[in-house]
Design goal:
The protein is of the alpha/beta class. It has a domain of 92 residues: EpsJ-like (Ribonucleotide Reductase Protein R1, domain 1). A hairpin with a 6-residue loop joins strand 8 and strand 9. Helix 4 packs across helix 5.
C-alpha cells in the first residue's frame, strides 16, 4: 500500500493524533492543539452569534420602517379623504349660495308677483331655489311707531306686545325704555332707563332691528326665536293691510278678531294659503275696508295708521344643493323698472 492513501473503511486521523501515535509530538503539544481548536470553535460561535444579532436588529429595523411607512400611508389616505369631503361640502355651499342669489335676482324683476311660479325652480334633482315675496309694509315699523311719541301709534305697539303675552308692568317698562333709547335727552321716564351702570342709550332712532336687543327690558322678548318677524325699519310707516299678519291686524285699534279672521280667509283665497295664485287681489283701499267689514266712518279713524300697497318688498330666497341650504334676505323698493336695494343679508 502506498503511503498517504487511507484504505477504505479506516477512519481518518488528524495530523495531531497521527503525530502523537507516531511518537513525534509531545502530550503537551497535543493538549495545546486541542485548546486552540476549542478556542477557534468558540470564536466561530461568537462570530455567528454576533451575525445573528445583527440580522435580528436589521429585521426589527425593517419591521419598524414598514410600520412607519404604513402609518404614513394611512395618514395620507385619511388626509386626502378629509380634503375631498371638505371640498365637496364647500362646493355644495357655493352652489346653494348661487341658487339663493338666483332666486333673489328673479324676485327683483318688476313683473314678478308673490304667486309667480318663477319664484320656485329646480334645475336638477339636487339644485334649486324657493322664494317668498311679501310686502314690508305689513310689518310694524318701530321707528315710525315711537317717533314723536304719538299716543295712537305707541298704542299699536303696546297692543301687539299684549298679544304676545307680555304682562302690563313689563309692557310699560319695555315701552318706556324704548322711548328713552330713541329720545335725545337723558331724562328717564317713570318705567324707563337712561345712561348709567354701563348702560348707554343711543338717543336716536334705531338703525337696525337687532339694536332692540340692547334696550333694557327687551332682553327676554328678543331672545325668542322669530321675535322680529313682524318688525321692520324699512317700510313707509303705516301698516299695509294687504300684507299685515294676524297679530299686526289685531294690534290695530278698532279691528276686532272676527274682522281679522274673515279678512284673512278672503285674502288667502280658497286654498287658505297666502302667496298662491288664488289669493284675492285688492285693487283699492276701499276694497280692503269692505273686506274688513268697516264702515267709512270707522275706517276714517284708522286712515292715518294704515296703508295699501306699500312699495317696499321683502324677498327671502332659499337655495339648496343636496342637503345644503343658504338663504338670501333682501328688502327693496319697487320704483318703476329699476328696484332700489335697501338691505341684503346672507346666512
Amino acid at each position: 500500500m502506498r503511503r498517504g492513501i487511507t484504505p477504505p473503511g479506516r477512519p481518518v486521523l488528524s495530523l495531531s493524533l497521527r503525530a502523537e501515535r507516531s511518537g513525534n509530538v509531545s502530550p503537551d503539544r497535543t493538549e495545546e492543539s486541542i485548546a486552540l481548536s476549542a478556542k477557534e470553535k468558540n470564536q466561530r460561535c461568537l462570530r455567528f452569534a454576533r451575525h445573528d444579532r445583527k440580522r435580528g436588529a436589521a429585521l426589527l429595523l425593517a419591521l419598524w420602517a414598514l410600520f412607519l411607512l404604513g402609518a404614513l400611508v394611512m395618514s395620507w389616505t385619511l388626509d386626502v379623504n378629509s380634503r375631498l369631503t371638505i371640498s365637496g361640502s364647500e362646493n355644495r355651499i357655493l352652489e346653494a349660495e348661487a341658487m339663493a342669489a338666483s332666486g333673489a335676482e328673479v324676485a327683483l324683476n318688476p313683473a314678478i308677483r308673490p304667486s309667480s311660479p318663477n319664484l320656485e325652480r329646480n334645475f336638477s334633482t339636487r339644485e334649486g331655489y324657493r322664494v317668498r315675496l311679501t310686502g314690508e309694509g305689513g310689518r310694524l315699523n318701530i321707528n315710525w311707531l315711537v317717533a314723536g311719541e304719538n299716543p295712537m301709534r305707541v298704542e299699536i305697539l303696546r297692543r301687539y306686545l299684549e298679544l304676545k303675552g307680555i304682562e302690563l308692568n313689563e309692557r310699560d317698562h319695555m315701552i318706556d325704555c324704548l322711548l328713552d333709547w330713541i329720545d335725545p335727552d337723558n331724562l328717564a321716564r317713570l318705567n324707563g332707563a337712561e345712561a348709567g351702570d354701563g348702560y348707554q342709550p343711543a338717543n336716536t332712532l334705531l338703525t337696525r332691528i337687532d339694536e332692540m336687543k340692547r334696550v333694557k327690558g327687551w332682553e327676554t322678548f328678543t331672545a325668542t326665536p322669530g321675535w322680529d318677524d313682524d318688525f321692520t325699519l324699512n317700510s313707509s310707516g303705516p301698516v299695509d293691510l294687504a300684507w299685515a299678519s294676524r297679530d299686526v291686524l289685531r294690534a290695530i285699534p278698532g279691528i276686532t278678531d272676527p274682522m281679522v279672521e274673515r279678512f284673512l280667509q278672503l285674502r288667502a283665497g280658497s286654498d287658505g294659503k297666502e302667496g298662491t295664485a288664488d289669493d284675492t287681489t285688492f285693487k283699492s283701499i276701499d276694497e280692503v275696508r269692505s273686506a274688513l267689514g268697516l264702515s267709512a266712518q270707522q275706517f276714517q279713524a284708522l286712515a292715518p295708521y294704515v296703508s295699501f300697497k306699500d312699495s317696499v318688498m321683502r324677498a327671502v330666497s332659499i337655495g339648496h344643493s343636496g342637503e345644503t341650504t343658504r338663504v338670501v334676505q333682501m328688502v327693496f323698493r319697487r320704483a318703476g323698472n329699476i328696484p332700489q336695494m335697501i338691505t341684503w343679508r346672507e346666512f
